[in-house]
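Bench notes, afternoon.
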Amino acid sequence: MKPHPWWFSAAQFTGIGWYIASAIVFPTLLGDWIDGKVGSAPLLLLTGLLLGVVAAFYGTYKIASGYWSGSPPEDSE
């Protein structure tokens, strides 16, 4: 198997970083926005943050396990 150039690995890890950031930021901002509309602050903000962190860890594990095994991540659906 031919090794990938350095920029290919850098792009893969940059993608993981963007995935982690978006998985945490978007649900948190959505929870904050809904809290502002409903008036339940900070309940939904914290719920969005928790769900985002869980999704980030799970997704990162799935993506990284594909890198460790040398194969692309698979959809189990």
